[in-house]
Amino acid sequence: MATQEMRLPAASLRDDPSRQAFLLLRSVYTVAPILFGLDKFFNILTDWTQYLAPVAVQVVPVPAQTFMYAVGVVEIAAGLLVAWKPRIGALVVALWLAGIIVNLLLVPGYYDVALRDFGLLAGALALNRLAVLHAGRRVRAEVR
């Protein structure tokens, strides 16, 4: 008996709310980190260094803007990973958001942003769980 991979029949996207949720979350967690990562180089949306805890540049002794360039590279990579391997990428984004939350809790006045990022972390974990169902809908079928 030989084995070959077969795709499961795809349910209509219109009739599959969990697939809709997966595609929505995958799109958001791909595009947002890439856009925010790119903005770390241009500071169009905001001056990102204001969100950086002073202890961060003490631990990694580089200027705050240089630190944010590294943050931007990581965010772009995380967004691309979500697009390519959403199950793994979602966990990377969740861990990254956990780090951002810890950083924000060390900066007085940004607790509301930390709470928002906790909601984003929950969304990334939901994407991970949905990716288990939808990111590689293949089964092994035996061929006689």
From TrEMBL:
<dbReference type="Pfam" id="PF07681">
    <property type="entry name" value="DoxX"/>
</dbReference>
<dbReference type="InterPro" id="IPR032808">
    <property type="entry name" value="DoxX"/>
</dbReference>
<feature type="transmembrane region" description="Helical">
    <location>
        <begin position="21"/>
        <end position="38"/>
    </location>
</feature>
<feature type="transmembrane region" description="Helical">
    <location>
        <begin position="67"/>
        <end position="84"/>
    </location>
</feature>
<protein>
    <submittedName>
        <fullName>DoxX family membrane protein</fullName>
    </submittedName>
</protein>
<keyword id="KW-1133">Transmembrane helix</keyword>
<keyword id="KW-0472">Membrane</keyword>
<feature type="transmembrane region" description="Helical">
    <location>
        <begin position="91"/>
        <end position="111"/>
    </location>
</feature>
<keyword id="KW-0812">Transmembrane</keyword>
